[in-house]
Amino acid sequence: MSWGDAPAMVPGSTQPSVTAKKLIEVMTLDCEEPLIACSPDGKRKKYPYFDSISYFPNGKEMVSASGDRSVRRWDLQAGKEIEEARIVCQKGVLAVAVSRDGRWVVAGGGDLSYDNPGELKACEAETGMVKTLDHLRTVTCIDISMDNKLFASGSMDRTVRIWNLNTGELVAGPFERGDRISWVGAVRFSQDSKKLAVKSTAGTCPIEVWDLQKQNLDVTVGKPNVGFFPNTPVFWTKKDRSIVAASTFTVYEFNSSTLETVGAPFGAHTRFVDGLALSFDCALLASVHGLHHQALGV
Protein backbone atom coordinates (compact mmCIF):
# COMPACT_ATOMS: atom_id res chain seq x y z
CA MET A 1 0.00 0.00 0.00
CA SER A 2 1.27 3.44 -0.84
CA TRP A 3 -1.36 6.07 -0.14
CA GLY A 4 -0.30 9.33 1.46
CA ASP A 5 2.31 9.76 4.14
CA ALA A 6 0.74 7.68 6.91
CA PRO A 7 2.80 4.73 8.22
CA ALA A 8 1.75 1.48 6.63
CA MET A 9 1.71 -2.07 7.86
CA VAL A 10 4.24 -4.47 6.44
CA PRO A 11 2.39 -7.19 4.48
CA GLY A 12 2.12 -10.24 6.71
CA SER A 13 2.32 -8.20 9.92
CA THR A 14 -0.43 -8.60 12.50
CA GLN A 15 0.34 -5.44 14.47
CA PRO A 16 -0.55 -2.00 13.06
CA SER A 17 2.07 0.73 13.20
CA VAL A 18 -0.47 3.29 14.41
CA THR A 19 -1.78 3.56 17.96
CA ALA A 20 -5.43 2.50 18.15
CA LYS A 21 -7.81 3.66 20.85
CA LYS A 22 -9.99 1.06 22.48
CA LEU A 23 -13.59 1.08 21.31
CA ILE A 24 -16.14 1.46 24.09
CA GLU A 25 -19.76 0.40 23.68
CA VAL A 26 -22.01 3.35 24.45
CA MET A 27 -25.43 1.90 23.66
CA THR A 28 -27.30 -0.99 22.09
CA LEU A 29 -30.19 -0.35 19.72
CA ASP A 30 -32.79 -3.11 19.58
CA CYS A 31 -35.86 -3.66 17.43
CA GLU A 32 -38.45 -4.13 20.16
CA GLU A 33 -41.06 -5.19 17.60
CA PRO A 34 -39.52 -6.83 14.52
CA LEU A 35 -41.91 -7.00 11.60
CA ILE A 36 -42.99 -10.33 10.19
CA ALA A 37 -40.97 -11.40 7.15
CA CYS A 38 -41.37 -14.36 4.81
CA SER A 39 -38.41 -16.70 4.37
CA PRO A 40 -37.62 -18.25 0.93
CA ASP A 41 -39.59 -21.37 1.87
CA GLY A 42 -42.71 -19.26 2.42
CA LYS A 43 -42.72 -19.52 6.20
CA ARG A 44 -43.47 -16.34 8.14
CA LYS A 45 -41.09 -15.40 10.94
CA LYS A 46 -39.66 -12.45 12.81
CA TYR A 47 -36.42 -11.07 11.35
CA PRO A 48 -34.49 -9.15 14.04
CA TYR A 49 -31.30 -8.56 12.00
CA PHE A 50 -29.90 -5.34 10.57
CA ASP A 51 -28.41 -5.66 7.08
CA SER A 52 -27.15 -2.09 6.65
CA ILE A 53 -26.68 1.10 8.71
CA SER A 54 -25.78 4.70 7.91
CA TYR A 55 -25.18 7.82 10.03
CA PHE A 56 -26.77 11.20 9.53
CA PRO A 57 -24.10 13.91 9.12
CA ASN A 58 -24.93 15.46 12.51
CA GLY A 59 -23.81 12.24 14.23
CA LYS A 60 -26.92 12.30 16.42
CA GLU A 61 -29.10 10.02 14.31
CA MET A 62 -28.69 6.95 12.13
CA VAL A 63 -30.81 4.69 9.95
CA SER A 64 -30.91 0.92 9.72
CA ALA A 65 -32.16 -1.47 7.06
CA SER A 66 -33.52 -4.90 7.88
CA GLY A 67 -34.83 -8.03 6.25
CA ASP A 68 -38.06 -7.47 8.19
CA ARG A 69 -38.90 -4.88 5.48
CA SER A 70 -38.21 -1.87 7.68
CA VAL A 71 -36.02 1.23 7.42
CA ARG A 72 -35.75 2.63 10.94
CA ARG A 73 -34.41 5.99 12.09
CA TRP A 74 -32.71 6.14 15.49
CA ASP A 75 -32.18 8.97 17.96
CA LEU A 76 -28.72 8.22 19.33
CA GLN A 77 -29.02 10.66 22.21
CA ALA A 78 -32.25 9.09 23.44
CA GLY A 79 -31.13 5.59 22.41
CA LYS A 80 -34.42 4.68 20.77
CA GLU A 81 -36.20 4.54 17.43
CA ILE A 82 -38.02 7.56 16.01
CA GLU A 83 -41.06 5.47 15.21
CA GLU A 84 -42.93 8.11 13.22
CA ALA A 85 -40.03 8.15 10.72
CA ARG A 86 -40.13 4.40 10.08
CA ILE A 87 -40.49 3.29 6.46
CA VAL A 88 -42.12 -0.08 5.83
CA CYS A 89 -41.24 -1.64 2.47
CA GLN A 90 -42.83 -4.49 0.58
CA LYS A 91 -39.67 -6.63 0.71
CA GLY A 92 -36.52 -7.08 2.78
CA VAL A 93 -34.13 -4.09 2.78
CA LEU A 94 -30.49 -4.87 2.05
CA ALA A 95 -28.89 -1.41 1.68
CA VAL A 96 -29.45 2.08 3.05
CA ALA A 97 -27.57 5.38 2.65
CA VAL A 98 -27.95 8.96 3.92
CA SER A 99 -26.98 11.95 1.79
CA ARG A 100 -24.17 14.12 3.13
CA ASP A 101 -26.52 17.06 3.65
CA GLY A 102 -28.85 14.82 5.69
CA ARG A 103 -31.80 15.58 3.44
CA TRP A 104 -32.30 12.17 1.84
CA VAL A 105 -32.43 8.52 2.90
CA VAL A 106 -32.22 5.96 0.08
CA ALA A 107 -33.00 2.28 0.66
CA GLY A 108 -33.12 -0.76 -1.59
CA GLY A 109 -33.65 -4.48 -1.42
CA GLY A 110 -35.77 -7.41 -2.52
CA ASP A 111 -36.20 -11.09 -1.74
CA LEU A 112 -32.87 -12.39 -3.17
CA SER A 113 -34.72 -14.22 -5.93
CA TYR A 114 -33.40 -13.48 -9.39
CA ASP A 115 -36.86 -13.70 -10.95
CA ASN A 116 -38.59 -11.11 -8.76
CA PRO A 117 -38.44 -7.30 -9.03
CA GLY A 118 -36.46 -5.26 -6.54
CA GLU A 119 -37.52 -2.30 -4.46
CA LEU A 120 -35.90 1.14 -4.30
CA LYS A 121 -37.10 4.11 -2.26
CA ALA A 122 -35.83 7.66 -1.75
CA CYS A 123 -37.24 9.40 1.32
CA GLU A 124 -36.94 13.09 2.16
CA ALA A 125 -35.89 13.01 5.82
CA GLU A 126 -37.61 16.23 6.92
CA THR A 127 -40.99 15.79 5.22
CA GLY A 128 -41.20 12.00 5.08
CA MET A 129 -42.05 12.13 1.37
CA VAL A 130 -41.17 8.80 -0.27
CA LYS A 131 -40.40 8.20 -3.94
CA THR A 132 -40.63 4.59 -5.13
CA LEU A 133 -38.42 3.80 -8.12
CA ASP A 134 -38.46 0.82 -10.46
CA HIS A 135 -35.74 -1.84 -10.42
CA LEU A 136 -36.03 -5.08 -12.37
CA ARG A 137 -34.32 -7.21 -9.73
CA THR A 138 -33.26 -7.05 -6.07
CA VAL A 139 -31.20 -3.97 -5.18
CA THR A 140 -27.95 -5.04 -3.49
CA CYS A 141 -26.03 -1.77 -2.97
CA ILE A 142 -26.45 2.02 -2.96
CA ASP A 143 -24.22 5.09 -2.97
CA ILE A 144 -25.00 8.83 -2.93
CA SER A 145 -22.72 11.32 -4.66
CA MET A 146 -20.78 13.79 -2.53
CA ASP A 147 -22.63 16.75 -4.07
CA ASN A 148 -25.98 15.20 -2.99
CA LYS A 149 -27.36 15.34 -6.53
CA LEU A 150 -27.17 11.70 -7.67
CA PHE A 151 -27.43 8.21 -6.28
CA ALA A 152 -26.43 4.87 -7.75
CA SER A 153 -28.08 1.50 -7.27
CA GLY A 154 -26.62 -1.92 -8.08
CA SER A 155 -28.74 -4.99 -8.59
CA MET A 156 -28.89 -8.75 -8.91
CA ASP A 157 -29.73 -8.22 -12.59
CA ARG A 158 -26.03 -7.22 -13.03
CA THR A 159 -26.88 -3.61 -13.82
CA VAL A 160 -26.19 -0.20 -12.26
CA ARG A 161 -28.53 2.76 -12.53
CA ILE A 162 -27.90 6.45 -11.80
CA TRP A 163 -30.78 8.53 -10.44
CA ASN A 164 -31.45 12.22 -9.83
CA LEU A 165 -31.93 12.46 -6.07
CA ASN A 166 -34.30 15.43 -6.22
CA THR A 167 -36.57 14.28 -9.04
CA GLY A 168 -36.22 10.50 -8.87
CA GLU A 169 -35.55 10.40 -12.62
CA LEU A 170 -33.17 7.88 -14.19
CA VAL A 171 -30.32 9.98 -15.61
CA ALA A 172 -27.80 7.34 -16.68
CA GLY A 173 -27.78 3.62 -17.31
CA PRO A 174 -28.63 0.91 -16.94
CA PHE A 175 -24.93 0.01 -17.17
CA GLU A 176 -24.62 -3.74 -17.54
CA ARG A 177 -21.68 -5.62 -16.08
CA GLY A 178 -19.70 -7.47 -18.71
CA ASP A 179 -19.00 -10.71 -16.85
CA ARG A 180 -22.62 -11.99 -17.05
CA ILE A 181 -21.93 -14.22 -14.04
CA SER A 182 -22.32 -12.34 -10.77
CA TRP A 183 -24.46 -9.49 -9.53
CA VAL A 184 -23.29 -6.04 -8.42
CA GLY A 185 -21.79 -6.10 -4.93
CA ALA A 186 -20.67 -2.48 -4.42
CA VAL A 187 -20.89 0.93 -6.11
CA ARG A 188 -19.02 4.15 -5.27
CA PHE A 189 -19.04 7.62 -6.83
CA SER A 190 -15.72 9.34 -7.37
CA GLN A 191 -15.30 12.43 -5.21
CA ASP A 192 -15.95 14.70 -8.20
CA SER A 193 -19.10 12.66 -9.03
CA LYS A 194 -17.95 12.18 -12.63
CA LYS A 195 -17.21 8.45 -12.45
CA LEU A 196 -18.55 5.37 -10.71
CA ALA A 197 -16.61 2.33 -9.50
CA VAL A 198 -18.55 -0.94 -9.67
CA LYS A 199 -17.44 -4.17 -7.99
CA SER A 200 -18.80 -7.64 -8.66
CA THR A 201 -19.59 -10.24 -6.01
CA ALA A 202 -17.44 -12.95 -7.57
CA GLY A 203 -14.02 -13.36 -9.14
CA THR A 204 -10.57 -11.89 -8.58
CA CYS A 205 -11.44 -8.30 -7.63
CA PRO A 206 -13.55 -7.60 -10.75
CA ILE A 207 -13.96 -3.81 -10.93
CA GLU A 208 -15.34 -1.52 -13.60
CA VAL A 209 -15.07 2.27 -13.78
CA TRP A 210 -17.86 4.02 -15.68
CA ASP A 211 -17.68 7.55 -17.07
CA LEU A 212 -21.03 9.07 -16.10
CA GLN A 213 -20.82 12.02 -18.47
CA LYS A 214 -20.05 9.89 -21.53
CA GLN A 215 -22.13 6.98 -20.15
CA ASN A 216 -19.59 4.38 -21.21
CA LEU A 217 -17.21 1.90 -19.63
CA ASP A 218 -13.91 3.62 -18.97
CA VAL A 219 -11.72 0.75 -17.74
CA THR A 220 -12.08 -2.71 -16.20
CA VAL A 221 -9.93 -5.20 -14.28
CA GLY A 222 -10.24 -8.64 -12.73
CA LYS A 223 -11.59 -11.98 -13.82
CA PRO A 224 -15.13 -13.23 -13.14
CA ASN A 225 -15.47 -16.57 -11.43
CA VAL A 226 -18.18 -18.93 -10.30
CA GLY A 227 -19.03 -18.58 -6.60
CA PHE A 228 -19.86 -15.61 -4.44
CA PHE A 229 -17.76 -13.80 -1.86
CA PRO A 230 -18.56 -11.21 0.84
CA ASN A 231 -19.96 -7.91 -0.47
CA THR A 232 -17.13 -5.64 0.61
CA PRO A 233 -17.26 -1.94 -0.37
CA VAL A 234 -15.00 -0.12 -2.80
CA PHE A 235 -13.40 3.29 -2.13
CA TRP A 236 -11.79 6.18 -4.03
CA THR A 237 -8.80 7.72 -2.26
CA LYS A 238 -7.94 11.41 -1.99
CA LYS A 239 -8.37 13.41 -5.23
CA ASP A 240 -9.66 10.22 -6.91
CA ARG A 241 -6.10 9.06 -7.54
CA SER A 242 -6.72 5.40 -6.75
CA ILE A 243 -9.37 2.84 -5.87
CA VAL A 244 -9.23 0.42 -2.93
CA ALA A 245 -11.06 -2.90 -2.91
CA ALA A 246 -10.83 -6.40 -1.43
CA SER A 247 -11.19 -9.82 -2.99
CA THR A 248 -11.05 -13.17 -1.16
CA PHE A 249 -8.04 -12.84 1.22
CA THR A 250 -6.44 -9.74 -0.27
CA VAL A 251 -6.79 -5.94 -0.28
CA TYR A 252 -5.75 -4.13 -3.47
CA GLU A 253 -5.04 -0.56 -4.52
CA PHE A 254 -5.61 0.33 -8.18
CA ASN A 255 -4.65 3.34 -10.23
CA SER A 256 -8.06 4.91 -10.96
CA SER A 257 -7.19 5.72 -14.59
CA THR A 258 -5.73 2.37 -15.62
CA LEU A 259 -6.80 -0.02 -12.83
CA GLU A 260 -3.23 -1.28 -12.67
CA THR A 261 -2.24 -2.31 -9.16
CA VAL A 262 -0.30 0.22 -7.09
CA GLY A 263 2.33 -1.33 -4.84
CA ALA A 264 2.11 -4.81 -3.40
CA PRO A 265 -1.36 -6.15 -2.49
CA PHE A 266 -1.99 -6.61 1.22
CA GLY A 267 -2.49 -10.33 1.76
CA ALA A 268 -2.19 -10.88 5.50
CA HIS A 269 -5.70 -12.26 5.94
CA THR A 270 -6.17 -15.99 6.34
CA ARG A 271 -9.90 -15.90 5.61
CA PHE A 272 -12.15 -14.00 3.21
CA VAL A 273 -12.12 -10.27 3.88
CA ASP A 274 -15.63 -9.46 5.17
CA GLY A 275 -15.40 -5.68 5.38
CA LEU A 276 -13.43 -2.53 4.61
CA ALA A 277 -13.57 1.00 6.03
CA LEU A 278 -11.66 4.06 4.83
CA SER A 279 -11.23 7.07 7.12
CA PHE A 280 -12.72 10.39 5.96
CA ASP A 281 -9.27 11.89 5.38
CA CYS A 282 -8.20 8.79 3.37
CA ALA A 283 -5.31 8.31 5.81
CA LEU A 284 -6.28 4.91 7.25
CA LEU A 285 -7.90 1.78 5.91
CA ALA A 286 -9.22 -1.03 8.10
CA SER A 287 -10.04 -4.54 6.92
CA VAL A 288 -11.71 -7.36 8.80
CA HIS A 289 -12.29 -11.08 8.50
CA GLY A 290 -14.34 -13.11 10.95
CA LEU A 291 -13.46 -11.96 14.47
CA HIS A 292 -10.08 -10.52 13.49
CA HIS A 293 -9.15 -7.16 12.02
CA GLN A 294 -6.17 -5.48 10.45
CA ALA A 295 -5.34 -1.77 10.31
CA LEU A 296 -3.50 -0.49 7.27
CA GLY A 297 -1.88 2.87 6.73
CA VAL A 298 -2.99 4.64 3.59
From TrEMBL:
Keywords in alphabetical order: Repeat, WD repeat
Pfam family, one: WD40
SMART domains: WD40
WD repeats (start-end): 52-84, 132-173
Repeat as UniProt keyword: yes
PANTHER family: F-BOX AND WD REPEAT DOMAIN CONTAINING 7 (PTHR19848:SF8), WD40 REPEAT PROTEIN (PTHR19848)
Name of the protein: YVTN repeat-like/Quino protein amine dehydrogenase
